[in-house]
Write a structure and sequence with these properties.
Radius of gyration: 32 Å
Shape: elongated
CATH topology of the largest domain: Globin-like
Helix content: 40-55%
Low-confidence stretches: 312-319, 364-377, 546-560
Number of strands: 13
Length: 560
């Protein structure tokens, strides 16, 4: 009886199998493991081959359809005066899931490294080919201009017309090659920008002057100067800002019919558009290019900034171009710590907005984050890779500790009853990308890279999906924000405990970067949460009014 009392209190499941292979004893842990009561188990065969002295993993299927992985061990015992087998079963489901997650993360890291290598090879090829093409193109244009000047003798009117066509075609092709070269440099992380304090009106007026003749040829009204607050000052590369505005104005003129209107508006605001992906809060200078053109269909807006994407496709499209102008413009904006956003309605026109950090110094002074200060940037990010490595190693621990805290605080009414996958909701992937980003930042010596930009986009996507999933599980927005606070606390606690050999300055810098990224993730989750909550509220109103309601668009998040 004393032995039975001990066995019944064990955390491992214990079964006694008689000589006929049937279960004649099961402790409470075994009942929980199988999802069946002792009365259901007694007298039934085990259903698994048992060999004394061996250990094996088995899958147990419970009545509710859930499977559990258990470690099975067998020894011989004497039971009620007869020979029997004692089978011990240990639930290792969580451990096996952790191993599977680690393998998945390893596959993702390998795939990411392979993709980066392929992207780098593509960028190198594009850069090389662009240089090879640009050299003979410049020669073709140059010799055409020399012939037009009469260096080789007098030219007839027809010959001059043909030379003009050669020059126009050559310049057009050279522009396409330059765009490809810029994109290749951006993707390879080799394109740098300087930063000076400049007036928004100066950059806008210079771009407008370049586009004035083209707009007049097409019969489009183009504002002669920047509307609004042209004296607003920004921190950025004025040449690149002008390049972006010329791209935007060129598109606006191209896709606006004769009699239309194109304008540039400048100003300063503390509340940028919600879709702008900006790195900090504060005051922002905006330069809006608006037109009354054909507009962009809503289905096309999510991909309008992707490379080689155009508003029209096929051989019959009404305008030419490579589809790289908007891609390069947005990446240049983000390289200057700003962003480029779009709002458009098909048939009514578009508004592209360039966001730049408002300057705190007088115009003409150079700010402290110039493209030449690479040494200071490299010193500041030294050691971030070590912090990232610690984070990658401790993902499993972080996931488990955060899960325990969420269940312990009962952030949602059903927090304790939720499945592990529902509670975690791709947290391991999110943490892995945070760690990989710290490593990438150090390897790039603090310079912008495609890997860092892509990592931010991955985190934003996961955060949005997470907010939508929490809304569907019945959480509150306060509980969602509390979850992010717990995540920050667990990250700091784990990194400081496991990173004692890392330079303290690197840990502080790494935690600062992680805090900013988590703040961005929290806001993305909160916005997605609000969209789902609003959609559900509209659905309830429509149902009460007996109106048919379309099902909300599904996502990849688990559902209750």
């Amino acid at each position: 009886m004393r032995l039975r009392s001990i066995i019944e209190r064990l955390a491992d499941g214990v079964l006694i199998i008689d000589a006929a292979g049937n279960i004649c004893f099961a402790n409470p842990a075994a009942e929980h493991l199988f999802g069946r009561s002792s009365s259901e188990l007694l007298g039934t065969p085990l259903g698994f081959p048992v060999v004394v002295g061996n250990s094996t993993d088995i899958e147990v299927m419970r009545p509710d359809g859930e499977s559990v992985t258990a470690d099975l061990r067998v020894v011989e015992v004497d039971w009620a005066g007869a020979g029997a087998l004692l089978v011990s079963l240990r639930d290792i489901t969580d451990r096996m899931r952790a191993i599977d997650r680690e393998r998945e993360l390893e596959r993702e890291r390998a795939a990411r490294a392979e993709a980066e290598a392929a992207s780098q090879a593509k960028s190198e090829f594009l850069a090389m080919m662009s240089h090879e093409l640009r050299t003979p193109l410049n020669a073709v244009i140059g010799y055409a201009e020399l012939l037009d000047l009469g260096i080789a003798g007098a030219m007839t009117a027809e010959q001059r017309q043909q030379l003009a066509r050669i020059r126009t075609s050559g310049r057009h092709l050279l522009g396409l090659v330059n765009e490809v070269l810029d994109l290749a440099k951006l993707e390879a992380g080799r394109l740098t920008v300087t930063s000076t304090v400049s007036r928004a009106g100066d950059a806008a007026d210079a771009a407008l002057a370049l586009m004035q003749a083209r707009a007049e040829e097409k019969g489009i009204t183009l504002s002669g100067q920047c509307l609004g607050d042209g004296a607003a000052t920004f921190e950025g590369d004025e040449d690149r800002v002008r390049q972006i505005l010329v791209n935007l104005l060129s598109n606006a003129v191209k896709f606006t019919d004769p009699g239309g209107h194109v304008a540039v508006e400048c100003g300063v605001t503390d509340t940028p558009d919600a879709e702008a992906r900006l790195q900090r809060s504060g005051r922002w200078v905006y330069l809006k290019v608006s037109d009354t053109g054909v507009g962009i269909p809503s289905s096309h807006l999510p991909v309008i900034f992707d490379p080689f994407v155009q508003g029209e496709s096929g051989r019959t499209r009404s305008s030419d171009g490579s589809g790289l102008g908007l891609t390069i413009s947005r990446r240049l904006a983000r390289l200057m710590k700003g962003d480029l956003t779009v709002r458009s309605t098909a048939g009514k026109g578009s508004v592209f907005t360039l966001w730049l950090a408002a300057a705190t110094a007088p115009a003409g002074r150079t700010s402290q984050w110039t493209g030449d200060s690479t040494t200071a940037g490299a010193n500041r990010v030294r050691g971030l890779g070590d912090v990232g490595e610690v984070l990658l190693r401790e993902i499993e621990t972080l996931v488990e500790s955060l899960t325990l805290r969420i269940r312990g605080e009962e952030l949602a009414p059903a927090a304790k009853s939720l499945k592990f996958s529902q509670l975690v909701d791709h947290l391991a992937t999110y943490l892995a990308d945070l760690g990989s980003m710290l490593i990438a930042i150090e390897e790039a010596e603090g310079q912008p890279t495609v890997l860092v930009a892509d990592g931010t986009e991955i985190q934003r996507t996961i955060a949005e999906r997470h907010g939508m999933q929490r809304a569907r599980l019945g959480w509150s927005v306060e509980a969602l924000r509390r979850e992010y606070l717990l995540m920050r606390e667990e990250l700091e606690r784990t990194i400081r405990r496991r990173g004692r050999t890392i330079v303290p300055a690197a840990i502080d810098e790494g935690l600062t970067i992680l805090a900013r990224l988590l703040e961005q993730g929290e806001e993305c989750s909160a916005r997605a949460f609000a969209r789902v909550a609003s959609s559900d509220a509209d659905s309830e109103v429509a149902k009460s009014a007996s109106l048919p309601v379309a099902e909300p668009q599904s996502d990849l998040s688990p559902r209750t």
